[in-house]
Write a structure and sequence with these properties.
Layout: H1 24-64, H2 87-94, H3 98-129, H4 135-144, H5 150-163, H6 171-174, H7 182-192, H8 198-205, H9 210-221, H10 223-239, H11 242-247, H12 256-259, H13 271-291, H14 293-302
C-alpha cells in the first residue's frame, strides 16, 4: 500500500465501531420493563379509583338501608350504622305490596325480553343472511327510527291502547317488544354478518329452508350476541319507569321502579325503607351481570366487527 491507496489485490479492513458499554442492553431492558410496569400500575390505579367512585353511592344506599329512621340526616354522616336495623327490609316488604311489585317486574322484564329476542333475531337474520329488493333501504329506515324520540309516539300509542282497553295492564308494556327494537336488531345483524356464508350454503344443500337455517345453524352460534341483547333488555325493562307510570294506575299492578316512589310521602320520606327497597330492587341486576359477565363481554367484543 503506497500513498494511502490500497495496493492491488489487498482488501481494505472494515472500519471498526466503538464497542458498547458492557451491560448497556440489560440496563435498557430493565428500564423499559420498569416503565411498562409503572404505566400498567398507573392504569390499574385509575381503574381502582374510578371503581371506588362508582361504588360509593351503592355503599351509601346499603348503609342507609340498615340505619334507624332519621339517622340519614346526621352530621357527620354515619357510614357504619349503629345499631344495624335488619328489620327495615321486612318493613319495606310488608308496608307496601312489594311482593306484587316484584312479581309484576319479573313478568314484564322476562316476557318483554323473550319478545325482543325472538323479533330482533328474526329481523337481524333477514337483514344479514337473506337477499331481497330494497334490503339496504329498509335497513336504513330501521336505523332512522333510532332518532325518533319516544315522546313523539306516546300520545298515539296511548290512544291506541285505550281503544284496545289495555290500560292498567301489562299488555301496553309487553306487546310492543314483540315488534322488534332497532338497536338490538342492529347489534344482532352485525354479529350475524361475521358468520361465514358457507354455513347457509351447507344448510341449503342439506335441504334446510331459511327458517331452519336461522333456528338450527345461526342461533346456536349467536349465543354471545343474544346474551348481550338479553342483558340489555332485562336491565331496561326492569328499571323502566316511564312506561309503567303512564299505563298503570292500580298499586297492585305497578312495577318496582314505580312502586319505589310510593315510599315518598307528602310530608316526608322514610329513607331507610326506601333504600332497603332499592337494594332489593338492584340485587337481581347485579346477580345477572356477574353470572353472565364473560358471555356479555364476549358479545360486546364481537358485535360490530363487520359492517
Amino acid at each position: 500500500m503506497t500513498g494511502g491507496v490500497p495496493a492491488a489485490g489487498v482488501q481494505a479492513l472494515p472500519e471498526r465501531r466503538p464497542l458498547g458499554i458492557p451491560g448497556e442492553g440489560a440496563a435498557r431492558r430493565r428500564t423499559g420493563g420498569a416503565l411498562h410496569v409503572a404505566k400498567r400500575g398507573g392504569v390499574y390505579a385509575l381503574l381502582v379509583i374510578g371503581g371506588l367512585l362508582y361504588t360509593v353511592p351503592f355503599l351509601w344506599m346499603l348503609s342507609t338501608s340498615l340505619t334507624e329512621p332519621g339517622s340519614v340526616v346526621k352530621l357527620p354522616p354515619q357510614w357504619i350504622p349503629h345499631p344495624i336495623v335488619w328489620g327495615n327490609y321486612v318493613r319495606a316488604w310488608t308496608v307496601l305490596p312489594f311482593g306484587d311489585f316484584t312479581r309484576n317486574s319479573i313478568v314484564y322484564a322476562v316476557t318483554a325480553l323473550a319478545g325482543q329476542l325472538i323479533s330482533c333475531s328474526l329481523a337481524a337474520f333477514g337483514f344479514s343472511r337473506l337477499r331481497f329488493p330494497g334490503r339496504s333501504f329498509w335497513f336504513g329506515v330501521l336505523l332512522a327510527t333510532l332518532m325518533l324520540p319516544s315522546q313523539v309516539t306516546l300520545i298515539p300509542q296511548f290512544i291506541m291502547f285505550k281503544n284496545l282497553h289495555w290500560l292498567d295492564t301489562l299488555l301496553p308494556l309487553i306487546v310492543p317488544a314483540y315488534f322488534g327494537n332497532a338497536l338490538y336488531i342492529f347489534l344482532l345483524r352485525q354479529f350475524f354478518l361475521t358468520l361465514p356464508n358457507e354455513l347457509d350454503d351447507a344448510a341449503r344443500i342439506d335441504g334446510a329452508n331459511p327458517f331452519q337455517t336461522y333456528l338450527y345453524v345461526i342461533l346456536p352460534l349467536a349465543t354471545p350476541a343474544l346474551a348481550t341483547v338479553a342483558i340489555f333488555s332485562f336491565i331496561y325493562h326492569w328499571n323502566d319507569f316511564f312506561g309503567p307510570l303512564i299505563y298503570l294506575t292500580t298499586p297492585e299492578k305497578m312495577t318496582i321502579a314505580v312502586g319505589l316512589q310510593l315510599f315518598r310521602g307528602q310530608w316526608g320520606t322514610d329513607f331507610s325503607l326506601l333504600m332497603a327497597a332499592s337494594v332489593a330492587a338492584v340485587i337481581p341486576i347485579i346477580v345477572l351481570f356477574f353470572v353472565a359477565q364473560k358471555t356479555f363481554i364476549q358479545g360486546i367484543a364481537l358485535t360490530g366487527v363487520k359492517g
